[in-house]
Amino acid sequence: SDVAIVTGAESGLGQAVALSLAELPLRVIAVGRRLDPLLETASKSAGKVEPVASDVSNAAARNHLCSALNPADKVHFLVHAAGIHAVEPLGSMTSATWRRVLDTNVDARLFLTLDLLPRLRSGSRVLFVGSNSATRPRKSATAYCVSQAASYMLQQCLSIELAPRGIAVGSAVPSPVDTPMIAAQIAADPAVYPDATDYRRLRDTGQLIAPQTVATFYRWLLTQTSDEAFSAGPWNIRDESHHEHWLAGANLYERRSITD
User: Fold this and answer.
1) In terms of DSSP H, where are the helices of 24-141?
2) CA 235 centroid distance within chain
3) Where are the alpha helices (H) located in the chain, listed in sequence order?
4) Helical H runs in 56-179?
5) Cα gap 146→177, rounded to integer Å
6) How far apart are CA 248 and CA 158, in angstroms?
7) First vs last Cα of the chain: how many Å apart?
8) Residue 13: what are its φ and ψ, rounded to 5°?
9) CA Rg value for the chain
10) Cβ-based neighbours of 153, under 8 Å, separated by 6 or more
11) Angle at 52 between CA 6 and CA 233, to 5 degrees
């Protein structure tokens, strides 16, 4: 059967994407570190989302995820939505935080894709959740910015490597999204993390995008674009040139709410 795998599906964007894809004739596997939030995600899907607790930055846990698949399963969509952000001034950076961010935001995306390669067939698609931080340096967010830049280049390289197999690999920037990750950045001390001020302004002026809106955009990308267009990115949700195809005349910033 056709399967969609969504990482980071405990809350926020990953949860919204899993629920949106569950509206398609697919079996959706929602992946995250904690089982209870995944069960909550599954409870909202009328039984169409299967929760699998797995830390995708860990090789043994990735093996557990792969073992949850049936022998005949084909991974039609793989969405890399899991991500870690850390506010850490340069002077107090630790190797532990650096490794944790890079392990999840870069290594897991590479090695989970490789682990699932036998299940990815011609016509499969892999979507990387991108970030403006891939090209925008931010004070006290060195690990995150570097990880996003590396993730973008990883997506580009995988796109080249997997195209001959008929597997399209794309990237799409969703931000700024009203998620727990943004909430944590808003709560940071602006003296340490100046971007907190910008995110507070976006929140206060109603310019945070609902996760459900991003999920609609991602589902359109995964299901309605050509392989060439899908992989050509990086796509950006705020680029109005494609809004007519999936936004259906709605306001990009409608339905603002943090999905816990």
Assistant:
1) 35-43, 59-67, 95-102, 108-115
2) 13
3) 12-21, 35-43, 59-67, 95-102, 108-115, 142-162, 180-186, 195-204, 211-224, 227-232, 243-246
4) 59-67, 95-102, 108-115, 142-162
5) 20
6) 32
7) 30
8) -65, -45
9) 17
10) none
11) 10
Query: What is the token pair recorded at 89?
Result: 């001034």
The residue type found at 217 is: F
Q: What is the pLDDT along the chain (260 residues), one digit of tens a residue?
A: 899 999 999 999 999 999 999 999 999 999 999 999 999 999 998 889 999 999 999 999 999 999 989 999 999 999 999 999 999 999 999 999 999 999 999 999 999 999 999 999 999 999 999 999 999 999 999 999 999 999 999 999 999 999 999 999 999 999 899 999 999 999 999 999 999 999 999 999 999 999 999 999 999 999 999 999 999 979 999 999 999 999 988 999 986 444 33
Cβ contacts of 54 within 8 Å, gap of 6 or more: 31, 32, 33, 61, 62, 64, 65
